[in-house]
Design a protein that fits this description.
oxidoreductase, 6-stranded parallel β-sheet, alpha/beta, ADH-like_C, 2 domains, Quinone Oxidoreductase, Chain A, domain 1
Length: 329
């Protein structure tokens, strides 16, 4: 089979190489799947660079999220059948940027019939992250104001739709007019281009000085620091990641003075600690997808030959919506 593999660590455009290799075989608790579509995520770039918390042995195939067809069951796998259309996470080092991949049976879920393969491939990590951040960590309530950073990106776009579905008012922060259009299409009530506007002032004006009840921050750096200036009394800032490359050092005295909460989210830990919550979340997301309330925005479909460039552009923050590896592209 063909697979895009990393043989040495570095920038995605430099280290992703198209290889011809044997298809992997499923071990106990695993399934072998034929990849129908695989969404590109920021962790894929971090894996190439060797800066992600998971460090698979070289050489490895990235691609952590996919929609696929089950072709073989490993020992002990029940509840799945050959031919099932599924979504979930790939098992590294046999990731989804290939014609076939491995998945752990505990994170294989039915792909919603209401979504295309490309859309279903984008429903798992970003939307699960958004759901856990807004509902489990922040306890989002109807009518609250949510500030979403990187609102046109993978997890940010999911957060915009999920917050809107929950009855919240959404302020989306983006970088550039093209991304602003995507955030508007996603349903953000107000879109702020950080290159030309001050989101702090926009949020204060919109809320009559109260501030955002929830801040969804996958960026870190200055985005986090400035968010503390417009978070509401008893507001919640959910820390998703640090796409800016800068991990902020918060002034805890400021959190004390304004009575706001700093909440961390490492969604992947729930697979280890309480996998039933991931299954429950998938059911909620499927319901929302079937009702048309969430729908991943797929901006590009790329073949393996052009995928390294796509991963690089995502890493550099120049993409909008979701990039998807599509074998048929």
């Amino acid at each position: 089979m063909r697979a895009l593999r990393v043989h040495e660590l570095g920038e995605p455009k430099d280290v992703l190489r198209l290889d011809e290799i044997d298809a992997p075989r499923p071990g106990p608790g695993q399934v072998l799947v034929r990849v129908l579509a695989a969404a590109v995520n920021f962790p894929d770039a971090l894996l190439c660079r060797g800066t992600y918390q998971v460090k698979p042995p070289l050489p490895f195939t990235p691609g952590v999220e996919l929609c696929a067809e089950v072709v073989e069951l490993g020992e002990g796998v029940t509840g799945l059948s050959v031919g099932d259309r599924v979504l979930g996470s790939a098992e590294l080092p046999s990731g989804a940027f290939a014609e076939f991949a491995l998945m752990g049976a505990d994170v294989v879920f039915p792909a919603p019939a209401s979504l295309s393969d490309d859309e279903a491939a984008s429903l798992f990590i970003g939307y699960q992250t958004g759901w856990f951040a807004l509902h489990r960590r922040a306890g989002l309530r109807q009518g609250e104001t949510v500030l979403v950073h990187a609102a046109a990106g993978g997890v940010g776009s999911a957060a915009v739709q999920l917050a809107r579905a929950a009855g919240a008012r959404v302020v989306g922060v983006v970088g550039g007019p093209g991304k602003a259009e995507v955030a508007k299409e996603l349903g953000a009530d107000v879109v702020v281009d950080r290159h030309s506007e001050d989101f702090v002032q926009v949020v204060k004006d919109l809320t009559a000085g109260r501030g955002a009840d929830v801040v969804f921050d996958p960026v870190g750096g200055d985005s986090f620091t400035r968010s503390t200036k417009c978070v509401a009394f008893e507001g919640r800032i959910v820390i998703i990641g640090f796409a800016s490359g800068t991990i902020p050092t918060p002034g805890l005295n400021h959190a004390l003075i304004k009575n706001y909460s700093l909440l961390g989210l490492h969604w992947g830990l729930y697979r280890q600690r309480d996998p039933a919550l991931i299954a429950e979340c998938h059911e909620r997301l499927t319901e929302l997808a079937d009702r048309g309330l969430v729908k991943p925005v797929v901006s590009e479909r790329l073949p393996l030959e052009r995928l390294a460039d796509g991963v690089q552009r995502l890493a550099e923050g120049s993409t909008v919506g979701r990039l998807v590896f599509a074998p048929s592209a």
